[in-house]
Amino acid sequence: MPKDPLKTRLEIAKSKILRKNLYNKKDNPSSIGTAFKLSTELVSAVAVGTIIGFIFDKTFGTKPWFILIFFFVGVVAGITNVIRSAKNMQK
Amino acid sequence: MANPMTQFNVHRIGPEIKVGTFDISFTNASLFMIISSVAILIIFNLGSKKNSLIPNKIQLLAELSYTFVSKMISDTAGLKAKPYFAFIFSLFMFVLFCNMFGMIPYTFTVTSHIIVTFMLAAFIFIGVTVIGFMKHGFGYLKLFVPSGVPAVLLPLIVVIEIISYLSRPISLSVRLFANMMAGHTMMKVFGGFVISLGIVGGWLPLSFSVALTGLEILVAFLQAYVFAILTCIYLNDALNLHH
What residues contact residue B156 under an 8 Å CB cut-off, 6+ apart? Predict the structure, then answer.
């Protein structure tokens, strides 16, 4: 049977790949990808917070207050975003 | 010196088509979207035509990208995300081909426009939210309430979580758009330096230009990868609620 040697070879190759993945997890392309990720994570949350504050101010007519509050809430959200994805990177 | 931003101009090809007040004419952006979609279709049709055990080059390309995306999904989102393979695969391929076609001189980079990337990201965002609500019902709202938070802080935390959830499509789209636009502008600026400094001083910006082209090809691949992997991560949040 020509199929059996192929099967065993496939199994050997699969276990090799599995072992390789366990050892050099650092080497995958996602590490440089997550580095790109962190920068925009911070900015976008601040932007969303400010936009929400701006919309609230427009609808309620309380000009500077909501935008001030939501700006800082957005900063906090951005920092939690960055910390969260940094934690995911370490996993 | 040529304006480095003219490469991003969208202009009409062929007649003007209007539906109501919307201009839906065929533009160079639509042309390059169609070119990349057709290229993907051709490559994968040729690649899956002959299933030989020893693959030829196109089949190898198709199989490699298949295993790459399939491994990415199972690594980040688990087995439950397998039904969404087709969507993530086509998304990854579309972004990758748009980015790569933009690297050819005199072409148009579709992904360097925020409206294109934002539409992709908004589609993903809405889709993931709908999937989350379908799988967990209103229990999906638990995503906004992390466990182990004192009741006093809860209103603030919920607001912060909602903002960080809403920031996903923005960060997803801005990342791709900003990387592509900044890279292409930089290449154009250095190309302009080569012309204006002439044969005497033009060699330094030329070497920069060559290095930047390599970097841009890396960025083009990487941004497509990041776009797809973040979709997987968001999908993972929606499928396996673990807060």
Answer: A73
